[in-house]
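Thread: NAP complex, take 2
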Amino acid sequence: MDPVPLALSVCGVLFLISWISYSLHYFFHAWVTPTPRDLKKLYDAEWALVTGGSSGIGLALCDILCSQGINVFIVAKDDPLIGQSTKELKKKYPDRDIRALGVDLGDRNGGYLSKIEKQTKNLRINLIFNNAGYIRVGLFPDDPVDAALHNMEVNVTSSLRITHLFANRLLDRGEKGVIGFTSSSSCFIPCPMSAMYGATKAFLTHFATSLAAEVRPSGIQVLVIHPSPVNSNFYSDTRGLGAMESARKTAVSAETVAKSILSSVGRTVIKDQGYFTVGARLLLKVLDLNLFADIAAAGIGLAGDYWKLKKDRNPEKKERMMNKSDVLRKNMFHAARIPFSEFDSTWRHFGCTARQQNRSALQVDEVASLIR
Ligand SMILES: NC(=O)c1ccc[n+]([C@@H]2O[C@H](COP(=O)([O-])OP(=O)(O)OC[C@H]3O[C@@H](n4cnc5c(N)ncnc54)[C@H](OP(=O)(O)O)[C@@H]3O)[C@@H](O)[C@H]2O)c1
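Output below.
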């Protein structure tokens, strides 16, 4: 056989193996094992600790755990929501012991850990779900560094401190258990405009996969889930960004993700949930991350969201760059022969509307006339 067709065939086969190995694993865990597992029975669990249990995925997780007869210890921000959610859970599950601790998991001195340590000293906690987290939208250099570090403490460092404490307690008692992490599909791809989010979630995923191997022989199962968009308070501060709004429109319920977590525990280490995560994974099997990163870096100027967020350090230069980006965009659509109506809706979809509301170098009508 000629070397070129041979090389192409080999590449095709490797590509197919890569897709098939991913798809088989995904469909097995999505379809064959879709029901939440009874963690009380499986891990002889009396108590679970859930960070971020006051709302969204964490609250849905607490709800299911209580329904299985497990007591929950919630750790979340010290705000009215934690009291309200705890009260509602107690009303729904009067036989369960439901406790809550309001702390700032973003405290960079880790002051929350001693409180958690003290208040859980006499509780036999076998299930630990590191779920608290939030996205901070903005351009990294334009954001105060303290805000970025707070984000890192909540999304990553608090999970490390908590995991270290409870993994050691489990190992000392010689008991089975679960350590869960709520990561995100953002961890696979460049996340300009929320750089801390993607980076913190990438840390969680990688850490979880290594920890899983270290503790499995001792009977501790580690799970990291990558949810697709979820309908929760996560989207309460998106700064009107088109991409975030679009994601929100496709969001599934927090209960769906909680069920996905509980059906995957002990069955797999990494659980990809929903269309966005699976799409990103499959895309990265075709488009390598190295190339993806170059495309993201080269194309960011075409995103309306980017210009909306960018700080006006030098208004003249910003105006010039925005104009350049408009002309580029116009040429791209012109070359692709996309009719304006389609362009208009796509453009609005990805955040142009937001930019127009602020200030725009070229109005959409002007762009339309240029395209025509
Ligand atoms: N929603 C999505 O589309 C999506 C997608 C992928 C991954 N995730 C991840 O899923 C996890 C849960 O998010 P969610 O969607 O359920 O959003 P959510 O409803 O906003 O829940 C976030 C939880 O984290 C707590 N939290 C935030 N900052 C905290 C702090 N400084 N100290 C203590 N607790 C803090 C919140 O407490 P308060 O309620 O008191 O603020 C809340 O309980 C997060 O890690 C998020 O990154 C979400």
